[in-house]
Design brief:
70% of the residues lie in helices and 0% in strands. It is mainly α. α5 runs antiparallel to α6, α14 runs antiparallel to α16 and α18 runs parallel beside α20. The chain is elongated.
Length: 408
């Protein structure tokens, strides 16, 4: 039967023969769920022969059989992920063709959203199987998955779908801006977008979905997105690239849970660089520097936020943070630990003014004068000497900063 499907995929015969083969695929599901390779061939048959009604019927039967079978929860979710992955790959392939086949893309997107709903909405699963399946990182369906591959797929696809939801809400908010301004209302806060580059090319597939398909699933997807990331970081061996920790930080950042986001961002940098003791760079931490600064600012930790602004050359931003920081916050004792990590002359001069005129803290003022007098950071030194000194200062700051964030 599969051999015949492969032949028909390349050389479509008459309509009656295609319908007969389509019906035989549905009948074969009574004997068990097909393997991934068989599913791939069957899906290719439906797409290439444009049997959209047959594809819908097959997917409906497959969905029912997944939940009525005696397979374990792990196998059921694994099969759902296999089908969703196939649809994602086919959507990406279809979009790469010239011209685009809009009918196939629309059909695949609708089916993928259907299977995605089965993965992320517990009520849909209960309705199909009568089972009570709980979503959590410590138990239930996600805990049944032992391998990282299906979890990584799920995270990438959900990230893309959530990004599309955010884009749709941003467009809706933009339409309301003029109305709010006319009515004198305060403008709503902007939506913090997910960093799709962190999740790979599959996230781009999810970001192409129609907003009408993904917006109804947004709340469920947010819950499962965070739970899946928590499950990923709990797997052994611990993920050394830090992407999933940074992703968890993003999940908390979306909801303005600044302290939790800050801890995950710091952990992402720590695992990628052996707590900043190695020469390796941390791409995850570098990508979230602006968000880390935002978290620190929201937590009223203006001094370490200003130090981090130096890392990507945002001296103006650091200047603004220190100028508008309340003197009583800058006078806190724990801020003194970060003062000797400044190397920008303009920022050091501003800090001298603040602690001599506003906070009148003689201890911090003396510390700043010692930093200014450090010969290693002298602007008259060669560019190489100054670069080495700045890099050493950065590494020392990050070790101290991460220890404070993770061990406090």
């Amino acid at each position: 039967m599969l051999t015949e499907a492969a032949t028909l995929t390349r050389e479509p015969k008459d309509e009656e023969q295609r319908h007969k083969l389509s019906a035989s695929f549905c009948d074969a599901l009574q004997h068990g769920i097909p393997s991934y390779n068989a599913l791939e061939l069957i899906m290719a048959f439906y797409i290439n022969t444009q049997e959209w009604d047959g594809l819908n019927a097959y997917c409906k039967t497959l969905k029912n059989n997944i939940f009525s079978s005696g397979a374990t929860i792990d196998n059921k979710l694994g099969t759902l992920c296999d089908v969703a992955y196939l649809f994602s790959a086919m959507i990406k392939e279809a979009r790469g063709r010239t011209p685009h086949p809009p009918e196939s893309i629309k059909a695949l997107e609708s089916l993928l959203a259907n299977f995605l709903a089965l993965i992320v909405i517990p009520s849909a699963q209960q309705a199909e199987s009568g089972e009570c399946i709980e979503w959590s990182s410590s138990g239930g369906l996600l805990c049944a998955l032992r391998g990282a591959a299906p979890l990584q797929f799920l995270v990438a696809l959900l990230a893309g779908c959530l990004a599309q939801c955010q884009r749709a809400r941003r467009l809706l908010a933009a339409d309301d801006v003029s109305k709010q301004q006319k009515q004198g209302k305060r403008r709503q806060r902007c939506v913090h977008e997910l960093c799709l580059a962190r999740y790979g090319p599959l996230a781009e597939v999810g970001a192409m979905f129609s907003s009408q398909l993904v917006l109804p699933l947004e709340e469920s997807m947010q819950h499962v997105f965070q739970a899946t990331l928590e499950r990923l970081v709990s797997l052994e061996p611990f993920p050394a690239d830090g992407r999933w920790l940074a992703g968890l930080g993003d999940a908390h950042y979306q909801h303005r849970r600044w302290d939790a986001a800050l801890r995950y961002y710091a952990a992402a940098g720590a695992v990628e660089t052996d707590f900043f003791c190695s020469q390796r760079q941390s791409p995850s931490f570098t990508s979230v520097l602006p968000r880390t600064v935002k978290c620190l600012t929201a937590l009223r930790a203006f001094t370490p936020a200003a130090v981090l602004c130096q890392f990507d050359g945002r001296t103006v931003k650091a200047f603004s943070l220190l100028q508008r920081a309340p003197p009583q916050v800058l006078s806190l004792a724990n801020d003194a630990a970060y003062l000797h990590y400044f190397w920008d002359p303009a920022l050091l001069e501003l800090l001298v003014y603040i602690h001599s005129q506003k906070t009148r803290d003689e201890r911090k003022l003396a510390l700043l004068l010692r930093v200014i007098g450090d010969t290693q950071l002298n602007e008259n030194n060669s560019a190489e000497e100054r670069a080495v000194a700045i890099q050493r200062t950065k590494s020392n700051f990050l070790r101290s900063f991460v220890a404070d964030v993770l061990l406090r």
